[in-house]
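Quick one - first record:
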Amino acid sequence: MKHSQLTGFFICLALIGVCFLPWVYIESKNILVTGLSAPDTNFGKPGLMIVIMSVCCAICFALPYIILKRFNVFFTAFMMGWSIRNFIILTACFMGECPKKYPAIYFLPILCLACLLAALLYKKKL
């Protein structure tokens, strides 16, 4: 609890890094989907929202204002929901074909949960 803000800041940086790693590979179309690149699919850029929210969270973790700590809980909860959405959509089997999952797609919700816990464990000095 003492170092939750510093830990949360570094987790946000790790989340940004995970968005550049490969998440899934669709063999039939020979497509490698990362957080910021999903060519020839309807996924768009699934990790772009994670990157934007991670930057907002990192700013909230870095600055010592109490109102930013409260906003940070909202940002991290939204980011957690978005990561679960990405996990469900990208790893779903379609017409009998399941994409090959890489470890980065598993790190995404785990790191978002850790970021949420770091935001919730903020202790204000009295």
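second record:
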Amino acid sequence: LLSEYNITDSARAIQEYVDEISNWYVRRGRDRYWGSEMTDDKAAAYTTLYHVLVTLSKLLAPYMPFMAEMIYQNMVPAFYPDAPVSVHLCDFPAADQAYEDPALEEGMAEVLRIVELGRSARNLGGIKNRQPLSEMLVASDTPLELHGELEAVVLDELNVKKFVKADGSDALIRYTLKPQMRTLGPKYGKKLKDIGEFLKTCDAQAVVEAVRGGGTYTVDLGGEVVLAEEDLQIFTESAAGYAVAQDRGLTVALKTELNEQLLFEGCERELVSKIQTMRKEAGFEVTDRIAVYYVAEGRAQRALEQGGFAGDVLAEKIAPQDGMQGFTREQDINGDKVTLTLVKMN
């Protein structure tokens, strides 16, 4: 793009790349960066991110010269004294095809689509992201080439236990059709009532499949009526027990039934979120060890008593409140009233 002086599209490509690094790659790799020991996996994660950020500074140099220079100065001279003194004295990066993995890129692009639809399904169903779900079904008009590792990314990102490839979306989506008066009126003015009655009782799935992608559906209503997609108002409804989202031949359905175990895990995750927020509000360092004291009820009390999430919040102690003073907040944990007090350990 830059060889053609296409500044706008190349800048947008960099913007999309930065968004993927920040909101996907770095966020997905948080567990790899965490921990006190320098394992091989942690070293690989840091090395990869370092390479990405230094290369990004060189890509940004023609667009954001001062920002690019700041990134470069923070990351390169202190570690490589023989490197150019400025990003603007570096060669512009050249693509190295040895690093390319088209199959992985295509698979991850599919993962991102599924995750986006899964989030939409959660929103439609009014289900918090922190609430674990038992199962998700994915149906696609084209073959899904997701292996176990990529399926695991989807499950972790959407907080779901099981990934199932469905044969089709028929059982997951129910369609309701109404006539589009703006287009049907001029063509079939006298038959609008008959068309409306037909759409109430027809096989809506068959009609939708016929008109998708520029097709038509023909029906005899005392004369031939040809329906196209623009002639219909198409409404979708999730099948009972599922929250469903659909886009461009891909359907994601989340099973919404919650048993006691799932509700308990959701309570634990909500507690982790609230305690992490309190740590920030209290001004604790990310590595500070803490004690958690509580007054609680219901499912939240059982979760605090068991303390299975202690490692997630770096808590060395979780115990009922016995008069300890510290940073205190009242919380609503999925309907349970809880008072939490955090104390930094020496």
